[in-house]
Amino acid sequence: MSKVVKAKYTSEAVPAFTHRTAMEEAARCLLCHDAPCSQGCPAGTNPAKFIRSIRFRNVKGAAETIRENNVLGGSCARVCPYDRLCEEACSRCGIDKPIEIGRLQRYAIEQEKLFNMKTLVAPAKKLNASVACVGAGPASLACAAELAKAGYNVTIFDREKKAGGVLTYGIVPTRLPQDVVDHDIAQVEGLGVKFVLGKEVKKADLDAFDAIFVGTGLWAKKLPDIKGTDLKGVYAAIDYLKEAREKKAEMGKKVVVVGGGDVTVDCAVTAKLLGAEDVKIVYRRTLEEAPGNMTEFQYALSLGIGITTNMAPAEVVGSGKVEAAKFTGRDGKSALTLDCDTIVFAIGQGAETVDFADVATGEKNLVKAEAGAVKGNVFAAGDIVNGGKTVVEAVAGGKEAAVSIMAYLEKKGVK
Ligand SMILES: Cc1cc2nc3c(=O)[nH]c(=O)nc-3n(C[C@H](O)[C@H](O)[C@H](O)COP(=O)(O)OP(=O)(O)OC[C@H]3O[C@@H](n4cnc5c(N)ncnc54)[C@H](O)[C@@H]3O)c2cc1C
Ligand code: SF4
């Protein structure tokens, strides 16, 4: 595989603003009195305030405004569905086009990193109370940051070697480079949060903590109930993306990705950028019905990835390893066979059973929580509760749970 292709997989596809273009974009902001952009963010980010700071060349102030509400401001600047949130609400939509709020947020956080700005400060006085956050994804990181800012002792546990959850092991680096995730995590560490990584958590590990937060996400892989899914070369999406991020090397020459969401596109783009000769997406409905972002599908098409619709997987064929995949048409009559050496099923993930804490579970094995509270000293948020939404919603859930944890500890008199 050529170095050019490799570089493409690990480098960000959307270019950054320069100082000049950032200032020009900030100057387009109408400084709206009611700032509708600032009402649309689940994590409570205030774009009107940070754009105003950028406009007056106070970039540190801008970064502080972002971090104050969202410790994962760098990652969210890349992966948030802005078009459905703050940018959709922007008053300039009625004039020409919305302010590029996401790219301005990215600019402010890039400047924070470049000039080593200290935008979050750990409290001088620590409390005695301790909280364990299980899972080092966005929900736990946000929960831990809120608690640490209030002086609590927080330890994050994760069975993986690196923190970040899906940010580190799922999303393609072309959309979210690892150094951006690492810089966000460094802010959480800077608040005094401890990390215990690479270790499966047991109930006994958590006994000494006053409260437990469960932010374990959705990691049970899903494969369709068809013949041949035990063959070598069959992957669930999250395993494929994780292996690709670790290996950064070819992940199949002829790859078929089954699904119609953003994760499907992430898998197909990963395969292509890591050197696959032929990549095809196959979806069981029409593109109009697909849950994935149309811009991402267009990006996939621009890379030469083919998209076939109205075809559902029927069988994976091969002896020992994958050789082809068979599909049946939505009309019940048509059929399609695609030669491939790798097939990735991006058809969602499920919840694993939580065995390290006492939780109540409901439909699909998800943890039941009310404003982050589960029962007793156990709290939860993020994908394991909402069934899989967005990073910013996991951040919002983690923050909400932190408020409930603090109220619980105060009521118990644990300080
Ligand atoms: C491929 C992919 C692409 C996505 N793209 C986007 C996007 O572009 N924009 C967006 O907003 N959202 C996106 N999402 C959704 C988003 O990533 C999730 O909603 C978000 O990461 C949920 O955060 P979380 O903290 O709840 O869980 P996770 O990020 O899943 O983190 C959970 C962590 O818990 C750990 N864990 C699990 N069980 C245990 C255990 N027993 N002991 C210890 N640790 C454990 C895991 O290792 C993991 O690190 C994407 C999701 C996927 C899978
Ligand atoms: S809504 Fe748009 S124009 Fe108004 S303050 Fe927010 S970003 Fe600026």
Structural write-up:
- This protein is an alpha/beta fold and 415 residues long.
- It folds into three domains: 100 residues, Alpha-helical ferredoxin (Fumarate Reductase Iron-sulfur Protein, Chain B, domain 2); 151 residues, FAD/NAD(P)-binding domain (3-Layer(bba) Sandwich), CATH 3.50.50; 128 residues, FAD/NAD(P)-binding domain (3-Layer(bba) Sandwich).
- It has 15 helices and 16 strands.
- Strand 1, helix 8 and strand 2 form a beta-alpha-beta unit.
- The longest helix has 22 residues.
- The radius of gyration is 22 Å and the shape is globular.
- The mean pLDDT is 94.
- It binds flavin-adenine dinucleotide and iron/sulfur cluster (SF4).
- Flavin-adenine dinucleotide binds next to helix 8, strand 2, helix 11, helix 12 and helix 14.
